[in-house]
Amino acid sequence: MLTDESRRQDFPALDEMCYLNTAAEGIPPRKVLEALVRYGDDKLLGMDGRQLHEAQREEAKQQLATTYGLTIDEVGFCSCSSEAYNLAALALQLTESDEVIINDLDFPAGATPWLQPSCKANVRVWHAREGALHIEDLVSLLNSKTRLVTASLVSFYNGYRIELPAVVEAVQKHSSALLALDVTQALGRVPLDLAGVDLVVSSSHKWILASHGGGLVGVPSLVSERWTVPAGGWFNLSNAFEPNRFERTVTKPGAASFSVGMPNYPAIYAINAGLNYIQSVGVEAIDEYCRPLMSYCFEELKKLPVELITPERPGGVAGIIAMRHPDADRIYKALHAENVHIMCHAGRLRVAIHGYNTLQDLERFIRALHAELKN
After folding, report:
1. Are residues 267 and 286 located together in one domain of the fold?
2. Among 49, 117, 277, 317, which residue is least crowded by beta carbons within 10 Å?
3. Of the candidates 245, 261, 279, which is a domain's last residue?
4. Which string of DSSP letters, residue by residue, matches 150-163?
5. Extended strands (E) in 211-338
Protein backbone atom coordinates (compact mmCIF):
# COMPACT_ATOMS: atom_id res chain seq x y z
CA MET A 1 0.00 0.00 0.00
CA LEU A 2 2.88 2.32 0.82
CA THR A 3 6.07 2.13 -1.18
CA ASP A 4 9.38 2.22 0.63
CA GLU A 5 9.74 5.83 -0.49
CA SER A 6 6.26 7.00 0.47
CA ARG A 7 6.51 5.21 3.83
CA ARG A 8 9.83 6.91 4.51
CA GLN A 9 8.45 10.26 3.42
CA ASP A 10 5.17 10.05 5.39
CA PHE A 11 6.47 8.17 8.44
CA PRO A 12 10.21 8.80 8.85
CA ALA A 13 10.08 7.59 12.48
CA LEU A 14 9.40 4.07 11.17
CA ASP A 15 12.71 3.78 9.30
CA GLU A 16 14.38 1.81 12.08
CA MET A 17 11.50 1.17 14.46
CA CYS A 18 9.26 -1.89 14.32
CA TYR A 19 6.09 -0.27 15.61
CA LEU A 20 3.15 -2.56 16.39
CA ASN A 21 1.38 -0.48 19.02
CA THR A 22 -1.10 1.72 17.16
CA ALA A 23 -3.91 0.50 19.43
CA ALA A 24 -2.22 2.61 22.13
CA GLU A 25 -0.68 5.45 20.09
CA GLY A 26 -0.76 6.07 16.37
CA ILE A 27 2.32 7.38 14.56
CA PRO A 28 1.21 10.57 12.75
CA PRO A 29 2.17 11.17 9.13
CA ARG A 30 4.02 14.36 8.24
CA LYS A 31 0.77 15.98 7.13
CA VAL A 32 -0.55 15.84 10.70
CA LEU A 33 2.60 17.48 12.04
CA GLU A 34 2.36 20.12 9.33
CA ALA A 35 -1.26 20.76 10.35
CA LEU A 36 -0.15 21.41 13.94
CA VAL A 37 2.42 23.90 12.65
CA ARG A 38 -0.32 25.51 10.57
CA TYR A 39 -2.43 25.88 13.71
CA GLY A 40 0.49 27.71 15.33
CA ASP A 41 0.85 30.03 12.35
CA ASP A 42 -2.89 30.76 12.41
CA LYS A 43 -2.82 31.34 16.17
CA LEU A 44 -0.15 34.01 15.66
CA LEU A 45 -2.83 36.07 13.90
CA GLY A 46 -4.73 36.52 17.17
CA MET A 47 -8.47 36.91 16.68
CA ASP A 48 -7.95 37.06 12.93
CA GLY A 49 -6.92 33.42 13.18
CA ARG A 50 -10.26 32.39 14.69
CA GLN A 51 -11.92 32.28 11.28
CA LEU A 52 -9.21 29.91 10.06
CA HIS A 53 -9.69 27.75 13.17
CA GLU A 54 -13.41 27.52 12.45
CA ALA A 55 -12.79 26.59 8.83
CA GLN A 56 -10.66 23.67 10.04
CA ARG A 57 -13.41 22.60 12.44
CA GLU A 58 -16.02 22.61 9.68
CA GLU A 59 -13.72 20.57 7.42
CA ALA A 60 -13.03 18.10 10.23
CA LYS A 61 -16.77 17.78 10.93
CA GLN A 62 -17.39 16.96 7.28
CA GLN A 63 -14.60 14.36 7.32
CA LEU A 64 -16.01 12.82 10.48
CA ALA A 65 -19.58 12.84 9.16
CA THR A 66 -18.46 11.00 6.04
CA THR A 67 -16.58 8.44 8.13
CA TYR A 68 -19.50 7.85 10.51
CA GLY A 69 -22.09 7.84 7.73
CA LEU A 70 -23.90 10.83 9.27
CA THR A 71 -24.56 14.44 8.30
CA ILE A 72 -22.38 17.33 9.39
CA ASP A 73 -25.06 18.41 11.88
CA GLU A 74 -24.97 14.97 13.51
CA VAL A 75 -21.31 15.05 14.58
CA GLY A 76 -19.29 17.10 17.06
CA PHE A 77 -16.16 17.24 19.17
CA CYS A 78 -15.27 17.19 22.83
CA SER A 79 -11.94 16.59 24.59
CA CYS A 80 -11.78 12.77 24.74
CA SER A 81 -13.93 9.64 24.74
CA SER A 82 -14.10 9.66 28.55
CA GLU A 83 -15.63 13.13 28.53
CA ALA A 84 -18.08 12.05 25.84
CA TYR A 85 -19.37 9.16 27.92
CA ASN A 86 -19.67 11.24 31.07
CA LEU A 87 -21.65 13.87 29.15
CA ALA A 88 -23.77 11.06 27.72
CA ALA A 89 -24.55 9.89 31.25
CA LEU A 90 -25.58 13.43 32.13
CA ALA A 91 -27.88 13.50 29.11
CA LEU A 92 -29.68 10.26 29.96
CA GLN A 93 -30.35 11.10 33.63
CA LEU A 94 -30.99 7.45 34.49
CA THR A 95 -33.07 6.43 37.51
CA GLU A 96 -33.29 3.44 39.85
CA SER A 97 -35.82 1.80 37.54
CA ASP A 98 -33.40 1.81 34.58
CA GLU A 99 -30.80 -0.74 33.57
CA VAL A 100 -27.55 -0.35 31.64
CA ILE A 101 -25.65 -3.20 29.98
CA ILE A 102 -21.86 -2.99 29.77
CA ASN A 103 -19.38 -5.77 28.94
CA ASP A 104 -16.10 -7.07 30.28
CA LEU A 105 -14.13 -6.56 27.04
CA ASP A 106 -14.77 -2.82 27.06
CA PHE A 107 -12.40 0.04 27.80
CA PRO A 108 -13.07 1.78 31.15
CA ALA A 109 -14.21 5.02 29.47
CA GLY A 110 -17.37 3.39 28.16
CA ALA A 111 -18.18 1.32 31.24
CA THR A 112 -17.27 3.29 34.37
CA PRO A 113 -19.60 6.32 34.07
CA TRP A 114 -22.52 3.98 34.68
CA LEU A 115 -20.84 2.56 37.81
CA GLN A 116 -20.49 5.93 39.53
CA PRO A 117 -22.74 6.66 42.56
CA SER A 118 -24.28 9.53 40.59
CA CYS A 119 -25.71 7.00 38.14
CA LYS A 120 -28.78 5.44 39.76
CA ALA A 121 -29.35 2.76 37.14
CA ASN A 122 -28.71 -0.93 37.74
CA VAL A 123 -25.68 -2.09 35.73
CA ARG A 124 -25.62 -5.56 34.21
CA VAL A 125 -22.50 -7.09 32.66
CA TRP A 126 -22.47 -8.90 29.34
CA HIS A 127 -19.69 -11.43 30.01
CA ALA A 128 -17.39 -12.70 27.28
CA ARG A 129 -16.84 -16.41 26.75
CA GLU A 130 -13.53 -17.57 25.25
CA GLY A 131 -12.72 -13.99 24.36
CA ALA A 132 -15.96 -13.33 22.44
CA LEU A 133 -19.29 -11.68 23.22
CA HIS A 134 -22.19 -13.96 22.26
CA ILE A 135 -25.53 -12.52 21.16
CA GLU A 136 -27.57 -15.04 23.13
CA ASP A 137 -25.91 -13.83 26.32
CA LEU A 138 -26.89 -10.24 25.48
CA VAL A 139 -30.49 -11.26 24.77
CA SER A 140 -30.77 -12.84 28.20
CA LEU A 141 -29.92 -9.46 29.79
CA LEU A 142 -32.28 -7.30 27.73
CA ASN A 143 -35.71 -6.39 29.04
CA SER A 144 -38.23 -3.55 29.29
CA LYS A 145 -36.03 -1.77 31.87
CA THR A 146 -32.93 -1.62 29.65
CA ARG A 147 -32.24 2.00 28.74
CA LEU A 148 -28.74 1.64 27.35
CA VAL A 149 -26.39 -0.95 25.87
CA THR A 150 -22.81 0.25 25.50
CA ALA A 151 -19.96 -1.58 23.80
CA SER A 152 -16.85 -1.15 21.68
CA LEU A 153 -16.93 -2.22 18.06
CA VAL A 154 -13.41 -3.59 18.53
CA SER A 155 -12.16 -4.51 21.99
CA PHE A 156 -9.00 -2.79 23.19
CA TYR A 157 -8.37 -5.86 25.34
CA ASN A 158 -8.09 -8.60 22.75
CA GLY A 159 -9.22 -7.13 19.41
CA TYR A 160 -12.53 -8.98 19.29
CA ARG A 161 -14.93 -7.33 16.85
CA ILE A 162 -18.58 -7.57 17.78
CA GLU A 163 -21.18 -8.66 15.25
CA LEU A 164 -22.76 -5.22 15.09
CA PRO A 165 -25.82 -5.98 12.91
CA ALA A 166 -26.74 -8.83 15.26
CA VAL A 167 -26.28 -6.59 18.31
CA VAL A 168 -28.47 -3.89 16.76
CA GLU A 169 -31.16 -6.45 15.94
CA ALA A 170 -31.12 -7.92 19.46
CA VAL A 171 -31.31 -4.53 21.17
CA GLN A 172 -34.17 -3.34 18.99
CA LYS A 173 -36.10 -6.62 19.21
CA HIS A 174 -35.83 -7.22 22.94
CA SER A 175 -35.80 -3.68 24.37
CA SER A 176 -36.32 0.00 23.63
CA ALA A 177 -32.74 0.77 24.70
CA LEU A 178 -30.26 3.10 23.09
CA LEU A 179 -27.04 1.63 21.71
CA ALA A 180 -23.77 3.49 22.34
CA LEU A 181 -20.72 2.33 20.42
CA ASP A 182 -17.04 3.16 20.92
CA VAL A 183 -15.19 2.91 17.60
CA THR A 184 -11.78 4.04 18.90
CA GLN A 185 -10.09 0.76 17.91
CA ALA A 186 -11.85 0.63 14.54
CA LEU A 187 -11.96 4.19 13.17
CA GLY A 188 -9.37 4.46 10.40
CA ARG A 189 -8.60 0.74 10.43
CA VAL A 190 -11.74 -1.13 9.32
CA PRO A 191 -14.73 -0.05 7.20
CA LEU A 192 -17.66 1.16 9.28
CA ASP A 193 -21.39 0.55 8.85
CA LEU A 194 -23.00 2.11 11.91
CA ALA A 195 -26.67 1.67 11.00
CA GLY A 196 -28.78 1.35 14.14
CA VAL A 197 -26.22 2.94 16.47
CA ASP A 198 -27.57 5.81 18.60
CA LEU A 199 -24.29 7.28 19.91
CA VAL A 200 -20.86 6.93 18.31
CA VAL A 201 -17.71 7.83 20.24
CA SER A 202 -14.03 7.70 19.39
CA SER A 203 -10.74 9.11 20.59
CA SER A 204 -8.37 10.74 18.11
CA HIS A 205 -4.82 9.58 18.82
CA LYS A 206 -4.85 5.98 17.63
CA TRP A 207 -5.78 4.57 14.21
CA ILE A 208 -6.68 7.91 12.55
CA LEU A 209 -3.10 9.03 13.36
CA ALA A 210 -4.05 12.41 14.83
CA SER A 211 -3.17 13.99 18.19
CA HIS A 212 -4.51 13.72 21.72
CA GLY A 213 -7.35 15.96 22.84
CA GLY A 214 -10.25 14.87 20.66
CA GLY A 215 -13.51 13.09 21.43
CA LEU A 216 -15.32 12.38 18.16
CA VAL A 217 -19.08 12.20 18.73
CA GLY A 218 -21.89 11.13 16.42
CA VAL A 219 -25.61 11.37 17.24
CA PRO A 220 -28.24 10.57 14.56
CA SER A 221 -30.88 13.29 14.40
CA LEU A 222 -33.69 10.82 15.19
CA VAL A 223 -32.35 10.43 18.74
CA SER A 224 -30.78 13.87 19.21
CA GLU A 225 -33.23 14.90 21.94
CA ARG A 226 -32.34 11.83 24.01
CA TRP A 227 -28.63 12.67 23.75
CA THR A 228 -28.82 16.41 24.43
CA VAL A 229 -26.44 17.20 27.30
CA PRO A 230 -27.89 19.56 29.95
CA ALA A 231 -24.54 21.15 30.78
CA GLY A 232 -23.57 24.72 31.42
CA GLY A 233 -21.10 26.35 29.08
CA TRP A 234 -21.38 28.55 26.02
CA PHE A 235 -20.33 26.77 22.84
CA ASN A 236 -23.09 24.22 23.41
CA LEU A 237 -25.78 26.89 23.88
CA SER A 238 -27.80 28.61 21.18
CA ASN A 239 -28.57 31.63 23.37
CA ALA A 240 -25.21 32.06 25.13
CA PHE A 241 -25.03 35.79 24.30
CA GLU A 242 -28.70 36.63 23.88
CA PRO A 243 -30.51 39.12 26.13
CA ASN A 244 -32.26 36.27 27.97
CA ARG A 245 -29.04 34.38 28.72
CA PHE A 246 -29.27 34.95 32.48
CA GLU A 247 -32.89 33.85 32.59
CA ARG A 248 -32.65 30.48 30.81
CA THR A 249 -30.35 28.35 28.71
CA VAL A 250 -31.20 26.84 25.34
CA THR A 251 -28.94 23.89 24.55
CA LYS A 252 -28.07 22.88 21.01
CA PRO A 253 -29.44 19.38 20.32
CA GLY A 254 -27.55 16.13 19.96
CA ALA A 255 -23.87 16.04 19.04
CA ALA A 256 -23.49 19.82 19.28
CA SER A 257 -24.33 19.66 22.98
CA PHE A 258 -21.16 17.64 23.65
CA SER A 259 -19.00 20.66 22.70
CA VAL A 260 -19.43 22.50 25.98
CA GLY A 261 -16.60 25.03 25.75
CA MET A 262 -13.92 26.38 23.46
CA PRO A 263 -12.96 23.76 20.85
CA ASN A 264 -9.51 22.24 21.14
CA TYR A 265 -8.37 23.71 17.85
CA PRO A 266 -4.87 22.16 17.78
CA ALA A 267 -6.45 18.71 18.05
CA ILE A 268 -9.03 19.61 15.41
CA TYR A 269 -6.29 20.62 12.94
CA ALA A 270 -4.65 17.24 13.58
CA ILE A 271 -7.97 15.35 13.33
CA ASN A 272 -8.76 17.01 10.03
CA ALA A 273 -5.33 16.12 8.63
CA GLY A 274 -5.42 12.58 10.04
CA LEU A 275 -8.87 11.79 8.67
CA ASN A 276 -7.93 13.32 5.33
CA TYR A 277 -4.81 11.15 5.15
CA ILE A 278 -6.72 7.98 6.05
CA GLN A 279 -9.47 8.73 3.55
CA SER A 280 -6.95 9.53 0.82
CA VAL A 281 -5.59 6.00 1.20
CA GLY A 282 -9.00 4.40 1.83
CA VAL A 283 -10.05 2.41 4.88
CA GLU A 284 -11.10 -0.50 2.65
CA ALA A 285 -7.63 -0.53 1.13
CA ILE A 286 -6.02 -0.44 4.58
CA ASP A 287 -8.17 -3.34 5.79
CA GLU A 288 -7.50 -5.42 2.68
CA TYR A 289 -3.76 -4.76 2.91
CA CYS A 290 -3.63 -5.71 6.58
CA ARG A 291 -5.60 -8.97 6.35
CA PRO A 292 -2.68 -11.13 5.15
CA LEU A 293 -0.43 -9.52 7.76
CA MET A 294 -2.96 -10.43 10.46
CA SER A 295 -3.18 -13.99 9.13
CA TYR A 296 0.60 -14.35 9.06
CA CYS A 297 0.89 -13.11 12.63
CA PHE A 298 -1.87 -15.43 13.85
CA GLU A 299 -0.34 -18.49 12.21
CA GLU A 300 3.15 -17.78 13.50
CA LEU A 301 1.94 -17.10 17.05
CA LYS A 302 0.11 -20.44 17.07
CA LYS A 303 3.51 -22.11 16.72
CA LEU A 304 4.85 -20.40 19.85
CA PRO A 305 4.25 -21.17 23.55
CA VAL A 306 1.88 -18.24 24.18
CA GLU A 307 -1.81 -18.20 25.03
CA LEU A 308 -3.70 -16.41 22.29
CA ILE A 309 -6.69 -14.54 23.75
CA THR A 310 -7.97 -13.05 20.50
CA PRO A 311 -10.64 -15.36 19.08
CA GLU A 312 -9.88 -16.17 15.46
CA ARG A 313 -13.39 -15.95 14.04
CA PRO A 314 -14.60 -14.95 10.56
CA GLY A 315 -15.32 -11.22 10.62
CA GLY A 316 -14.33 -11.10 14.26
CA VAL A 317 -10.82 -9.68 13.88
CA ALA A 318 -9.79 -6.08 13.21
CA GLY A 319 -6.24 -4.87 13.84
CA ILE A 320 -5.37 -6.30 17.28
CA ILE A 321 -3.95 -9.65 18.37
CA ALA A 322 -3.43 -10.29 22.08
CA MET A 323 -1.76 -13.09 24.02
CA ARG A 324 -0.72 -14.00 27.54
CA HIS A 325 2.57 -15.28 28.89
CA PRO A 326 3.76 -15.56 32.50
CA ASP A 327 7.00 -13.80 31.59
CA ALA A 328 5.30 -11.01 29.62
CA ASP A 329 7.04 -8.12 31.36
CA ARG A 330 10.54 -9.46 30.65
CA ILE A 331 9.60 -10.25 27.05
CA TYR A 332 8.20 -6.76 26.55
CA LYS A 333 11.32 -5.07 27.93
CA ALA A 334 13.61 -7.23 25.80
CA LEU A 335 11.63 -6.49 22.63
CA HIS A 336 11.54 -2.80 23.42
CA ALA A 337 15.31 -2.79 23.82
CA GLU A 338 15.49 -4.15 20.26
CA ASN A 339 13.22 -1.32 19.05
CA VAL A 340 10.26 -3.66 18.61
CA HIS A 341 7.26 -1.85 20.08
CA ILE A 342 4.19 -3.71 21.34
CA MET A 343 1.97 -3.28 24.41
CA CYS A 344 2.24 -5.09 27.74
CA HIS A 345 -0.17 -4.94 30.68
CA ALA A 346 -0.75 -7.40 33.51
CA GLY A 347 0.72 -10.39 31.68
CA ARG A 348 -1.01 -9.50 28.40
CA LEU A 349 0.96 -8.70 25.26
CA ARG A 350 -0.86 -6.91 22.44
CA VAL A 351 0.11 -6.40 18.80
CA ALA A 352 -1.62 -3.81 16.59
CA ILE A 353 -1.23 -3.89 12.80
CA HIS A 354 -1.97 -0.81 10.68
CA GLY A 355 -1.46 0.22 7.07
CA TYR A 356 2.05 1.53 7.67
CA ASN A 357 3.22 -1.87 8.91
CA THR A 358 4.96 -4.36 6.63
CA LEU A 359 5.54 -8.08 6.46
CA GLN A 360 9.13 -7.34 7.47
CA ASP A 361 7.81 -5.75 10.68
CA LEU A 362 5.88 -8.90 11.51
CA GLU A 363 8.81 -11.18 10.68
CA ARG A 364 11.08 -9.06 12.88
CA PHE A 365 8.57 -9.23 15.73
CA ILE A 366 8.12 -13.01 15.45
CA ARG A 367 11.90 -13.58 15.38
CA ALA A 368 12.43 -11.39 18.44
CA LEU A 369 9.53 -12.97 20.33
CA HIS A 370 10.70 -16.49 19.45
CA ALA A 371 14.22 -15.71 20.68
CA GLU A 372 12.95 -14.39 24.01
CA LEU A 373 10.59 -17.33 24.51
CA LYS A 374 13.57 -19.66 24.14
CA ASN A 375 15.26 -17.97 27.12
Report:
1. no
2. 117
3. 279
4. EEESB-TTT-BB--
5. 215-218, 307-308, 320-324
